[in-house]
Design brief:
single chain, alpha/beta, FAD/NAD(P)-binding domain, D-Amino Acid Oxidase, Chain A, domain 2, 2 domains, 7-stranded mixed beta sheet, 6-stranded mixed beta sheet, binds flavin-adenine dinucleotide, 2-polyprenyl-6-methoxyphenol hydroxylase-like FAD-dependent oxidoreductase, FAD_aromatic-hydroxylase, FAD-bd, FAD/NAD-bd_sf
Length: 389
C-alpha cells in the first residue's frame, strides 16, 4: 500500500527517509532543487539515538573515520588571547561536517530515483493519491508526499499554509562560510564576542579548510531567503565596523565564498506534521535551529521513525503518520529548548560576556559536561520496525 512516495529535499532528513523507505520495500523518488546534494555546513552532532540509526545503516564506522575530531573550544578577546577554554576531547558521539554526512548518506542509499535541479511547485490531494506539479518537469502522481525541504519548506506552505504561521524568529541570524585554516587552532572552535554578536572559526581535524561563522542579534528582517547577495549584505552590515580579533579577514573571505550559507535562528512549531497524504520530516517539520546542535540528530531519528511506522502499518499513512508524530515529538520539544545555548554563545551585554567567560573557566563546568556526555549515551534503544499485516 502507498508504495510510490515523493520526498522533496536531499538533505539529511530526505536522504535518510529515502534510505529507510527503500530498505523497507517502498519506491521513493527524491526531488532536490539544487543540482546535487548540497555540500555546505559546519560540524553536526550524531548523538544518542541517531548513533543507532547510522549504525543500522552500516555507516557508523565511516562517520567515526570522517569525524571532525574537535578537541577544544575557546573564547578569545579582541587581541586573540584565550580568555576561557573548554576541553571537549573524548566525546563518544561523533561530530562530522554536514557535507560529509550528506555524501555518506547518498552513497549508501540504493533503490531510489533522484531528480536534481527541480522542486515541488504545487500539490493536489485526492482520496487515492497526490498530483505533484514541479518547477520544471511534467506533473506526476504519487501515493504519498514527504516534505524534507528544510526551514523554508515549499511542501509545508502548500499543505499547511504560510510560513509565518509555523516559523518563530529566534532573535538572531547566522552565517557559515569557508575560511583559511591557518587562521584557526587545529581541532578547536574559536569564538569572539561583542554584545549581541559572535564570530567564530571551526577548525576540524579532518579538513584542510576551516569554517567561519557569524551570529548577530536582530529583530526580524525582511529579505528573500534565496538571495545570497542580500544575505551577504546583511552580514557585512552587522560586522563591518568590528576591528577585533580576525573578524575582518574572516568576513572578507566569507563574502567572496560561493558556499556562503545564511539564515535566521528560527524554529518551526506545528500542531501536526501531517495533512492527509502529505507529511513533513526534519527542519520542515520542527527546525530547532543550529543553536540546538540537534538538527542532524532529529532528522536522522525522525526519518527512521517515519519510514519505520510506514512499514509497520503496511503503508497505511492514516495509522503511520500519527504514530510517527507521537513517537518523535517529545525529543523535538526537548531539543527546541535552546535558550541557554544562545545565551552561552552570544551574550547580549558586556557583563554577560564576562560572566560567561568566568563560568567557562570553572572546573565544575567541565565535570558537568562529562556527566552530560555520559548521560547522553544512555538514550533508549529505538524500535526495530518490521512489516505489519
Ligand atoms: C547548505 C546547508 C548548510 C547547513 N549548515 C548547517 C550547519 O553548519 N550547522 C547546522 O546545525 N545546521 C546546518 N544546516 C541545517 C541542517 O542541515 C538541518 O538542521 C538538519 O540537518 C536537518 O536537515 P533537513 O534535511 O531537514 O533540511 P536541510 O538540510 O535544510 O535540507 C533541505 C534540502 O531541501 C532542498 N529544498 C528546499 N526547497 C526545496 C524544494 N521546494 N524542492 C526540492 N528541494 C528543496 C534544499 O536545497 C536542501 O538540500 C544546513 C543546511 C543546509 C541546506
Amino acid at each position: 500500500m502507498n508504495a510510490q512516495i515523493l520526498i522533496a529535499g536531499a538533505g539529511i532528513g530526505g536522504l535518510t527517509t529515502a534510505y529507510w523507505l527503500a530498505r523497507h520495500g517502498f519506491r521513493p523518488t527524491v526531488v532536490e532543487r539544487a543540482p546535487g546534494p548540497r555540500p555546505g555546513g559546519n560540524g553536526v552532532d550524531v548523538r544518542e539515538q541517531a548513533i543507532d540509526v547510522v549504525d543500522r545503516m552500516g555507516i557508523l564506522t565511516r562517520i567515526r573515520a570522517a569525524a571532525a575530531d574537535v578537541r577544544s573550544m575557546k573564547f578569545v578577546d579582541a587581541r586573540n588571547r584565550a580568555v576561557a577554554r573548554l576541553d571537549v576531547a573524548g566525546a563518544t558521539e561523533p561530530e562530522i561536517m554536514r557535507g560529509d554526512l550528506v555524501a555518506l548518506l547518498r552513497d549508501v542509499t540504493e533503490g531510489v530515483e533522484y531528480v536534481f535541479g527541480d522542486g515541488v511547485r504545487d500539490l493536489t490531494q485526492d482520496a487515492d493519491g497526490v498530483t505533484v506539479a514541479f518547477e520544471h518537469g511534467p506533473d506526476r502522481r504519487f501515493d504519498l508526499v514527504i516534505g524534507a525541504d528544510g526551514l523554508h519548506s515549499t511542501v509545508r506552505r502548500l499543505a499547511f499554509g504560510p510560513e509565518a504561521d509555523h516559523v518563530t524568529h529566534g532573535g538572531h541570524y547566522f552565517a557559515f562560510a569557508n575560511a583559511d585554516a591557518s587562521l584557526g587552532e587545529d581541532r578547536c572552535v574559536t569564538m569572539f564576542n561583542r554584545p549581541g554578536h559572535m564570530a567564530g572559526l571551526y577548525r576540524s581535524g579532518n579538513h584542510l579548510q576551516a569554517k567561519a561563522y557569524f551570529i548577530f542579534r536582530s529583530a526580524p528582517i525582511a529579505y528573500d531567503h534565496r538571495d545570497v547577495a542580500a544575505h551577504k549584505r546583511l552580514v557585512h552590515a552587522a560586522f563591518a565596523h568590528e576591528t577585533g580579533w580576525r573578524v575582518q579577514e574572516l568576513l572578507a573571505a566569507a563574502l567572496g565564498d560561493p558556499d556562503f550559507y545564511f539564515d535566521a535562528v528560527s524554529q518551526v512549531r506545528m500542531d501536526s506534521w501531517s495533512a492527509g497524504r502529505v507529511t513533513l520530516v526534519g527542519d520542515a517539520a520542527w527546525c530547532a535551529s543550529p543553536a540546538s546542535g540537534a538538527g542532524a540528530e532529529l532528522a536522522l531519528v525522525g526519518a527512521y521513525r517515519l519510514a519505520g511506522e510506514l512499514v509497520a502499518a503496511s503503508g497505511d499513512h492514516r495509522i503511520a503518520f500519527p504514530r510517527y508524530q507521537d513517537s518523535h515529538r517529545a525529543l523535538v520539544l526537548k531539543r527546541q529548548q535552546i535558550g541557554p545555548n544562545v545565551r552561552l554563545m552570544v551574550p547580549g551585554t558586556r557583563t554577560g560576556i564576562a560572566v560567561r567567560n568566568a563560568v567557562a573557566r570553572l572546573p565544575l563546568l567541565r565535570a558537568a559536561a562529562a556527566v552530560e556526555r555520559r548521560y547522553r549515551t544512555q538514550a533508549p534503544t529505538l524500535p526495530e520496525y518490521t512489516p505489519g499485516v
